[in-house]
Amino acid sequence: MAELSTQAARPSIWRKMRGNTGALIGGTLLAVIVLIALFAPLLAPHDPVAQDLTRRLLPPFWHDRSVPEHLLGTDHLGRDYLSRLIYGARVSLGVGLGVILVSGAIGITLGLLAGYFGGWVDMVISFAITTRLSLPIVLVALAAVALGGASLTTLITVLGLLLWDRFAVVTRAAAQSLRHQEFIMGLRAIGASRARILFLEILPNMRATILVVVSLEVANVILLEAALSFLGLGVRPPTPSWGLMISEGRDNILFDPWLIALPGTALCLLVLAVNLFGDGMRDITGPVRK
């Protein structure tokens, strides 16, 4: 019966998504960016790290001095800007996904344990959450990346270990409200294991809430990666990163503002798409409000 009700509910979710403007716009835009990142080798017209100093700082297509083979111009080292923007989407999405996997695994597990068991388990985990909330994310990330060395792996690890608190807080509150529901008490009565109750019964009932947290955290991670790359503590050159591209173009902001405007626009569109899609999916999968 549960399988039949789930199958019957699936078409309604798609119908609701088509009727939700935010989810539709955000999902479409996010899907386009993901496809661009996946097929970057096929879409990029040039090697994103190939330098040609004879063609440095060529303007985009709307300028008179533009050249057809470099649609969005070149940077200060003569690298094709369109190719670097396309490959930069890979870095932003890769860092966002990697950090969410690490932080989500930590935060959701701790939140489930604290909310379901309560008592001293809740007290210890709540203390860990409070300790984490007292730490400034940006300053700790700057120090950790500076000590560990700027690399993609270090960046994902550091941010993943710093951004689990929101998952833990939300999951803990949801687990506390669900553990006293009748279906959970019935599972305890028939002797269901704690692992089954936590991960197969309680966790699936939090999907709407967790999805909202994921959308907020992905956008936050993307902005943090761009900020750290802008400061030279994120992705190492010559790897294309939107934050690094903004940093490299700041010296020419008065004469070639497009060097900052193009990656900045791409960054804004990605964050907007994630937020719109997450907010729309919350409305679609959440409880009906009368």
TrEMBL record:
Domain ABC transmembrane type-1 span(s) in chain numbering: 89-278
Broad class of where this protein is predominantly found: membrane
Membrane topology: Multi-pass membrane protein
UniProt keyword Zinc-finger, yes or no: no
GO biological process: transmembrane transport
Gene3D superfamilies in the record: MetI-like (1.10.3720.10)
Entry's Gene Ontology cellular component terms: plasma membrane
Compartments in which it is found: Cell membrane
InterPro entries, alphabetized: BP-dependent_transpt_permease (IPR050366), MetI-like (IPR000515), MetI-like_sf (IPR035906), OppC_N (IPR025966)
Transmembrane stretches, start-end: 21-44, 91-117, 137-163, 210-235, 255-277
Keyword terms: Cell membrane, Membrane, Transmembrane, Transmembrane helix, Transport
Family: Belongs to the binding-protein-dependent transport system permease family.
PANTHER family according to UniProt: OLIGOPEPTIDE TRANSPORT SYSTEM PERMEASE PROTEIN APPC, PEPTIDE ABC TRANSPORTER PERMEASE PROTEIN
Protein name: ABC transporter permease
Upper classification of the organism: Bacteria, Pseudomonadati, Pseudomonadota, Alphaproteobacteria, Rhodobacterales
